[in-house]
Specification:
The chain is mostly beta strands and 260 residues long. It has one helix at residues 41-47; strands at residues 6-10, 15-19, 34-37, 48-50, 65-68, 75-78, 94-96, 102-111, 117-122, 126-131, 160-168, 171-173, 176-179, 182-187, 190-197, 227-228, 235-245.
Length: 260
């Protein structure tokens, strides 16, 4: 099988970042990627912690459950912590212990019931929405409040879905932002976002790093973990992997094969 590549070449240096992987539900990890959710309690505890933001209400160990995958077998991670009931976002979100700058991410999610709500936060800043039933700029698959929802690509509640993302962090010089963060994304193997510039952190201080700085526009030059949101809804995650990149140029577009 032919695998188109994502390349980044640093001119006048020996810096090449590449990714070769399928996209879509069931995509296997790219070479050199790190698995961060395999459906086991051991990996959840080893690689994740709660994000102790201003709205945090829970306590370690992580209360999210490991439950059976009713579709394909095995086990998956469920965003279940009762302190978040009633949509109390920021109260029981989990974040990777490791922080990242540029990366390629694959994540699979399952919304168990209509209206289910969660979110995938790149660098614990920029949310890619997981919200069943919402087709607005705040809705499913949107770079939240920055793009329209690519809702037509959604498989629906009760089915597995996937995001494949290449993200480039903001760039700074002398403490000032010179290039805004950028993202491209496939949703269930369909390209839905190409080189989207992200302008700010939305949602206030409970959203993540820098959310409370200058109305979300005071982005800082520090890496951040991948965060998953808990809002008291049954949303499940599996087969999640990430590969660090060095993207010298402001280009996140990539072309890879859809899983057959």
């Amino acid at each position: 099988m032919h695998y188109p590549l994502f390349y980044n070449v640093c001119v006048l240096s020996v810096c090449v970042s590449s990714v070769s992987a399928d996209v879509g539900v069931g995509a296997k990890p790219a070479e050199g990627a790190e698995m961060i959710i395999d459906g086991s309690r051991a990996m959840l505890d080893a690689k994740w912690i709660y994000w102790e933001g201003p709205g945090f209400k829970s306590a370690m160990p992580i209360k999210w459950k490991v439950v059976p995958d009713e579709v394909d077998g095995g086990t998956v991670v469920m965003s279940d912590d009762r302190v978040a009931d009633g949509g109390k976002y920021g109260s029981a979100d989990i974040v990777t212990k490791k922080a990242y700058r540029d990366f390629r991410l694959h994540i699979e999610f399952f919304v168990a019931k209509p209206g289910g709500n969660s979110g995938v936060y790149l660098q614990n800043r920029y949310e890619i929405q997981v919200l069943d039933g919402d087709k607005t700029k705040h809705g499913m698959g949107a770079v939240i409040n920055e793009t329209d929802s690519p809702y037509a690509a959604y498989n629906g509640a009760g089915k597995w879905n996937s995001y494949d993302i290449t993200f480039r962090a903001a760039r700074f010089k002398d403490g000032q932002m010179t290039e805004k963060p950028m993202v491209s994304m496939y949703f269930n193997g369909i390209k839905v976002h190409t080189n989207v510039t992200i302008n700010q952190v939305h949602g206030g201080p409970n959203s993540g790093l820098d959310g409370g700085n200058a109305g979300g526009k005071g982005i800082t030059d520090v890496p951040g973990g991948l965060k998953l949101q808990c809002e008291g809804h049954d949303v499940r995650y599996r087969n999640t992997w990430i590969k660090e990149l060095e993207l010298a140029n402001p280009d996140t577009d990539f072309t890879e094969n859809k899983v057959k």
